[in-house]
Request: fold
Amino acid sequence: MTAAIKTLNLNAWYGKTHALKKINMTIEENKITAIIGPSGCGKSTFIRCLNRMNDLIDSFRTEGEILMHGMDINREDPVMLRKKVGMVFQKPNPFPKSIYENVAYGPRIHGTLDKELNTVVESSLKKAALWDEVKDRLNENAFELSGGQQQRLCIARALAVEPEVILFDEPCSALDPISTSKIEDLMAALKEKYTLVIVTHNMQQAARVSDYTAFFLMGEMIEFGETNQIFKKPKMKSTEDYIVGRFG
Amino acid sequence: MRKFKGKAFELFCLTATLIALFLLALLLYDAWDKGASWLSFKFLNSFPSRFPEQAGIKSALWGSIWLMLLTALISIPLGVGAAIYLEEYAGRTKLTRIIEINISNLAGVPSIVYGILGLALFVRGLALGRSLIAGALTMALLILPIIIISSQEAIRAVPSSIREASYALGSTKWQTVKHHVLPAALPGILTGNILALSRAMGEAAPLIMIGALTFIAFTPSSPFDPFTALPIQIFNWASRPKAEFQELAAAGILVLLALLLAVNAVAILIRNKYQRYIKW
Reply:
């Protein structure tokens, strides 16, 4: 097994708020790593460090290292990093353009030629299990799709730039149960080719889809291990309390 | 008692609205009553004259159109550029806050003050004389704060989730602004700009200040020609004692109002056309 991403003593601050405290974590390649924890525990902050999305916030700063192929991503160009580390957000956020344009946008800005775009769009939509539903209406506005379809479109859009890692920030919290289970099936299929990290409020979801689970509490990583172990035999008292629903 | 208070307040608001509408209608009626009989193609296509029957607004109309185009050319790139910088590039620092407060204050400065500035800076300082370009630069300064503020609001209304989606795909800042933020903000920006321009179209004070209040019997053919504009022609006629000139002024007002309404209608059309495509 190889590590896709490794964090070493990762600390993060929003202004004076210490949001992440000494996180040491290894994210395995071609696995799904889930991050659970109550609101405000730093789980979103953590995955937004992995594609440097937090750079957009003025008061944000980090210390420590995040290694990808042995290189510290904080010394890389964030634009190139985000091509390798894609992201799917909590609320589906398609561009107000056609379905086709939503998927084609990423490859186009990274230099894919127009004549190759059709293939990229088709294969990305197929990988996101959306092709059959939209193949006859590629020129319709993406807002015409249902919420679950929009979220799969966002996944297709992320896949189109051929990332290595895809970050999911509570991807199902705005979706109904049927759409949620479609996305979960999709994630299970995607891990053959990609490394996935998912932040979720839904513990059943973490237990269902992930191989590894990290439990965060107040900016610290309390426990990290195989999902089975975390859910069946947690080592720490607070992990157990959170999983059985005593708080959170 | 509580119900009565609510009713009384509603009545008060209704009265306020009715008074405003009534005054507006009265104004329109007055202008129409005096001026309508003077409206004709000849009126639009004749130069001013000291004989009322021969007087028209040709030079003023063309002056206003020239002035608007030049003002738009100067103020829109500057204003929209400043708005993009303030919203997308400048951080939320103390300095940007101070700049923004000052821009809001500038929007409230009386137009005559811009006239004084224009006179000192453009007419005399840059020695542009009483030319169209000096007038347009002055007008551009006058509406720049309004353009910046309304463009900023339009840009701010673009949800940050769209920016995040773009950055997450590996777009640069410029690509994000060009491909996503500006297209989404464009209807709002255009509406704001057109309304700002229509304000400039109706302003007389700054133009009087820079000395555009002269008898002009030709249409401008370059930005460096002297000019007159509709509000100034109206002011000129209205300040004469002869009754016919009062009526000519009213006719000028009707033309100016028609122009303003047309421009505002364009703004509304643009807004409605694009709003249908974008909903978050």
Chain B is about 75% helix and 0% strand. The interface with chain A takes residues 91-93, 159, 161-172, 175, 179-180, 184, 277-279 of chain B (CB under 8 Å). Chain B has a mean pLDDT of 86.
